[in-house]
Amino acid sequence: MAPKWQCRMLVGVASVMLMTGCTSNGATTTVTDDITGTTIPGGSSPSTSQVQPTKLLVWADETRGPIVEAAAQLFEAASGIVVEVEVMPFREIRAAILSAVPTGQGPDLFMDSNEGTGALVEAGVVAPLDLAIRESGFVPVALDAFAYDGEIYAMPFVTEAVALFYNTDLVPAPPADFEALRSVCDGLGLAAAVGVPCLAIPAGEPLHQFPFLAGFGGYIFGFGNGSYDSTDTGLGTPEAIAGATFLNGLYRDGYADGAVDYSTMADLFNQGSVPFMWTGPWQVEAVNAAGINYGVARLPDMNGRSARPLVGSQGFFLNAMSGIPDSAMSFLLDYIATTETMVQLSVATGRPPALLDALAGGSIDRNMEAFGESAANGVPLPNVPEMETVWGPLSDAFSALSGLTGDPAAIMATADGSVREALGTG
Question: What is the pLDDT of residues 255-281, one digit of tens each?
């Protein structure tokens, strides 16, 4: 049999295949109806003359596609259902789905990140997933990342969140809390150093600095029972102000530097100039290339509270128009959600796996485990369209906190007011 792996890039919607009911090589097969469970000889339905689909189409990117294909071959051998994996650049998938599905085109399953969940649900192009029998096997925050209006819309395979890099030549063991971090900094004589902060963290960058707010109980939008409430904003709460005050103190006392942006942060750590860097797994490749001896640890506690990073996730969505949703779910739960496949997806993605069995037990390296621990302790990055109104005010607030240009309470009140005004709720 010729390999089905499609080594081509899809270009626009015109190249998207219709989800038809043809079988490979035109052969006649038996088909199991996804709704009734009835086996239909020759692919004909007792209630319709149309041939039922016997092929799953999956969109994956160039990096993860071969892993999905390997799982697909096992599924096909067991079920007789052909799985075709087509390659598309990851960042182009969502737009293509939004164009294709309303016209009856597109794949049965596709990869995407959690922040697009709201847009996909509102467009009616994805179906909620029933993960009840396997739900306890996933990192809870990874499932929450794909929750919308009380339903889960994707099966997660990796998470991502910031953690603490530490130079093991300068710091043998990571600090458990900020009291220990400050002690290390003081011992190295870096707390008051101009231009060389002890903790390299990009000033004004919300993804990196939000853990300080969330660690004290601050939040962006209220979240409960799988739903966000955009009328409930938490940037101006006493808890958010307490976190902002703590962060402001790190800059005021010289442990962090308001002049450090993302590239400066990376340079300082990769040159061995600072003991600590606060960022995510996307920086691992550059640190490895720099030859720095380092480790990764979960974020240090703050005044007895855990720092809680924003957590992103990547997962598989189900096309709302799929003709064989039961088979698609069987493929996901029984062939993708295995320890072996999830570890492979983690390694290929450079992010910790969202499956608990894959995250534990030494299946991945210790640094990646630490990123997973940090994510497991975090809060989901809101996946609602209203999030677009937050990034600007939040960035302005963190820039003011790092620049020591105002009172933390006033700064956070301004940010919260800006979000409410943009949403028409203030």
Answer: 999 999 999 999 999 999 999 999 999
Max Cα separation, the chain? 79
φ and ψ of 258, to 5 deg: -65, -10
Q: Residues 275, 281, 283, CA angle at the centre, nearest 5°?
A: 60
| Residue 296 parent element (H or E) | strand 294-297
Answer yes or no: are the C-beta atoms of 78 and 69 closer than 8 Å.
no
- CATH number for position 412: 3.40.190.10
Domain final position from 380, 395, 415? 380
Question: What would the pLDDT profile of 363-420 be if each residue is shown by its tens digit?
Answer: 899 999 999 999 999 999 999 999 999 999 999 999 999 999 999 999 999 999 999 9
Read off the tokens for 32: 């199991």
**Non-local CB neighbours of 187 within 8 Å, separated by 6+ positions:** none
Whether residues 272 and 339 share a domain: the answer is no
Q: And the tokens for 235?
A: 């940037």
Same domain for 110 and 72: yes
Alpha-carbon gap, residue 13 to 18, rounded angstroms = 11
Angle at 308 between CA 346 and CA 203, to 5 degrees: 95
* Within-domain flag for 1: no
Number of domains present in the structure of the chain: 2
Instruction: Look at residue 61 and give its three-state secondary structure.
Output: coil
